[in-house]
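Consider what follows.

. . .
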Amino acid sequence: MTSGWLGLEGKGVLLVGAGGIGSACAKGFADEGAKVLLADLDADRARAVAETHDLERNGGGFVALDATDASACRAAVQLAQERFGTLSVLVHCVGINVRKPVLNLDDREWTKIIELNLSSGFFLGQAAGRLMCEQGGGSIVYFSSVSGLLAHKLHSPYAASKGGMNQMMRVMAAEWAIEGVRVNAIAPAYTETELTREYLSQPGVRESLERAVPSGRLGVPEDMVGPALFLASHRSDYVTGHVLYVDGGRTLV
């Protein structure tokens, strides 16, 4: 049973990324009655998440997507439109990281991170934005990071991709606001997902990171669901071009 307060029931959502945060958000949108098409490079993972959260109950499902392929991104947006009639929401929730000093990074590592974290956001945002401008409105939610603001060592390509994402979405928001299309970003601090699991298991890392967060703990995927639902819904109709830090106060210190 949905609350109805957010007005997401029956809305078409293309959610790209079936990892920890993406999975939690898929459940959140489906629980609110939204129709969620979950896209991921790993079709088996997308299928498993779709089945776990019963996305088909509202007419949703899953699709395989290489988000670094511009034509594939356009096709995914078109598929969502055809499946749902209109596309109300795009959520971009994909990303990778390689923790190395600047001097130790090679060309391929830089390019891979920028292509997946940033270029995919442009391809999907451009395609969804074009459709949403034509249909008279919509909401795009990107998952950024506090690394887009803070100069974390060993994060140069990741930080560049997230800082670039923040500025990219602000330009999109400025260009499309008059068309009723809102574009915002959520910036988590360290969150317990597949992307961070190995790093957090190293001796002393978790404790050090927790000390840096005023709230005293790391984030979990469920912390991101409420903010994503809010930014996707009509309850945030006057919010656009905003980076919402969901970080336990990490950016305060």
The mean pLDDT is 96. The CA atoms of residues 95 and 117 lie 5 Å apart. The chain has eight helices and seven strands. The first strand starts at residue 12 and ends at 16.
